[in-house]
Amino acid sequence: MKLISTLLFFLLLISLTYSSATPTRSRKRDRVHEPCKRLVFYFHDIIYNGHNSKNATSAIVGTPAWGNRTILANQNHFGDLVVFDDPITLDNNLHSRPIGRAQGFYIYDKKEIFTAWLGFSFVFNSTQHKGSINFAGADPLMNKTRDISVIGGTGDFFMTRGVATLSTDSFEGEVYFRLRAEINLYECW
Amino acid sequence: MKLISTLLFFLLLISLTYSSATPTRSRKRDRVHEPCKRLVFYFHDIIYNGHNSKNATSAIVGTPAWGNRTILANQNHFGDLVVFDDPITLDNNLHSRPIGRAQGFYIYDKKEIFTAWLGFSFVFNSTQHKGSINFAGADPLMNKTRDISVIGGTGDFFMTRGVATLSTDSFEGEVYFRLRAEINLYECW
Amino acid sequence: MKLISTLLFFLLLISLTYSSATPTRSRKRDRVHEPCKRLVFYFHDIIYNGHNSKNATSAIVGTPAWGNRTILANQNHFGDLVVFDDPITLDNNLHSRPIGRAQGFYIYDKKEIFTAWLGFSFVFNSTQHKGSINFAGADPLMNKTRDISVIGGTGDFFMTRGVATLSTDSFEGEVYFRLRAEINLYECW
User: How far is CA B189 from CA A21, A167, A176, B160, C7, in A?
Assistant: First the structure.
């Protein structure tokens, strides 16, 4: 009988364990979130201004009626759409060996302050990383840090999701800026 | 022996319960989907038309060869790309206190009828909500309701996913429209 | 006693089974990924070139300072933003009955080679499929195949996620191209 009651206790334990552990997709998850992967990169944007076509990594391609495509528009660049192909580096040096490219677009979308909306990918094809990470979200760039969503990935980053925290590491006039991206992935496959 | 058979029955029950409850990521889920969070907001778009720069919350910044950036193009505005920074309110009154901003872009993308593609965020920084919700998807705006994807979120909406059902709550000529967004989140963290 | 030890063995088995099967969201998943759904479609893009307004399914709506909106720009079309509403077919024949529309945009984003960034949806309203699938990602179109992310879906594709492998099935000058999209969904609801 002692064995049986031990058994019963064990059973109860299993039962309790699994009823709490079984995830329900539509239930609120616990608040302790450890990333399954954490990555830090820098990327460098040199915007075309009419004189730097050789070095430029980005260009204005859309602008409101009152703007043009060689000078960022008034009203905090509201309406300027910029396409970019920026080198990604592991440190904050523009001249370090790029390990990938940040490719996509940003749109300045507010008249009163600088803020933008981003849709882009990190595209890797190096010994360290192969594949891509895709991002989307609002970038209120006057904030010290701001979070955007990692909405998917391919290759080494197959099906990944997470949050990327951006910060402006350098800002030189209206032509060059450098962003630091700390990527925390919470869904890894 | 009776105890043992009861035990066996109990075991069988557990076994059956968990074999059906254990989720496999790549298996089709049950069709009963309860949102873990439901939110309703309104947002208000006043498009720049050359005369309303003070009130305008959006502007045409891209257009096909036959269009221009102060008047929406022919052919159901096909090709017009609009950047917006629209106030979000809890009711359908443009003059209610905004609790956030809807920021991003839409592109009219069909010649035969009105339809658009949306990429935008709800950005909150109020006592009610902090953080952002990111959206993407097709908006066939002549339909009474249409669904787009919630592709991610940050802050209070960390890692969220779901579906937002949009409906046009008001439409005044070519300058003002108001959308109702019912957001149903099915992944909450 | 034999029964009890059998029972114990059974218990141990259950325990082992579930401890390995219980998924932790933030843990790395096994590397065997079977799609829960696989779909293959073709879509057809005819870009407006000033002479084909009747047949064109897409148009340049943004371009860098050195470009224009009837001819794709120099430097591998860098900066050209194209809006499209392309028919989706089940085979590679442009004249097959469309079962939906591919709607959204692409932006050529590199000066040295052809590559683009895509944001678009497959919109279905047929007997086969109702609802939409939303995509985002980098399309290095000189590669034989390239992967983009399925970032969400609605209707029949409610909450879906996955990877779409694109390949250029045909390319006729600068006006017509046809893409094959093999969609592998790994999250089905």
Answer: 15, 24, 37, 7, 38
pLDDT digits (tens, 9 = 90+) for A37-92: 999 999 999 999 999 999 999 999 999 999 999 999 999 999 999 999 999 999 99
Where does chain B show beta strands of DSSP type E? 37-46, 58-62, 81-89, 100-108, 116-125, 130-139, 146-155, 161-172, 176-187
pLDDT single digits (tens) B92-114? 999 999 999 999 999 999 999 99
**Subunits adjacent to chain C (3 or more Cβ pairs under 8 Å):** A, B
List, for residues A119-156, the tens digit of each pLDDT value.
Answer: 999 999 889 999 999 999 999 999 999 999 999 999 99
How crowded is residue B65: how many other Cβ atoms within 10 Å of its Cβ?
A: 18
Are the C-beta atoms of residues B116 and B122 closer than 8 Å to each other? no
Tallying the residues shown for chain A, one arrives at: 189
Taken in order of first residue, the domains within chain B and their CATH numbers are 34-187 (2.40.480.10)
Average pLDDT on C104-131 reads 96
Structure tokens belonging to residue C173: 């000058």
Residue C161, sorted as left (phi over 0), alpha (psi -120 to 50) or beta, turns out to be beta
Task: Please name the member of A61, A117, A151 whose beta carbon is closest to the beta carbon of B103.
Answer: A117
Pairwise CA distance, residues C159 & C171, whole Å:
33
Name which of A157, B8, A21 is nearest C20 in CA terms. A21
d(CA A140, CA B17): 48
The two three-digit tokens of residue B122, written as one number: 């709800």
Distance of CA A169 to the CA centre of its chain: 15
| Bridge partners (DSSP) listed for residue B181 | B41, B166
Please report the residues numbered 47 through 86 in chain A whose beta carbons come closer than 8 angstroms to any beta carbon of chain C.
48, 50, 59-62, 68-70, 81, 83-85
Residue A57, token pair as written in the block? 């990594």
Determine how β-strand B146-155 pairs with β-strand C130-139.
Answer: unpaired
Identify the three-state secondary structure at position A3: helix
Half-sphere exposure of B50 (CA within 13 A, CB side): 6
- Is C118 within 8 Å of C124 (Cβ atoms)? no
Looking at beta carbons, which residues of chain C come within 8 Å of B14? 14
Residues in chain B: 189
Structure tokens at B185: 């989140």
Compute the distance between CA of residue B113 and CA of residue B78 in angstroms, rounded to an integer: 9
pLDDT at C5: 60
Q: Which of C125, C174, C172, C118 is nearest to C149 (CA)?
A: C118
Tens digit of each residue's pLDDT (9 = 90 or more) over B9-47: 555 555 544 444 334 444 445 567 899 999 999 999 999
- Determine the residue among C3, C25, C68 to mutate to test chain A binding: the one whose Cβ has the most chain A Cβ atoms within 10 Å: C25
Q: Given this model, what pLDDT does residue A24 score?
A: 41
Alpha-carbon distance of B176 to B57, in angstroms, equals 10
How many CB atoms lie under 10 A from the CB of residue A30?
7
Is B187 close to A25, i.e. CB distance below 8 A? yes
What's the confidence (pLDDT) of residue B173? 86
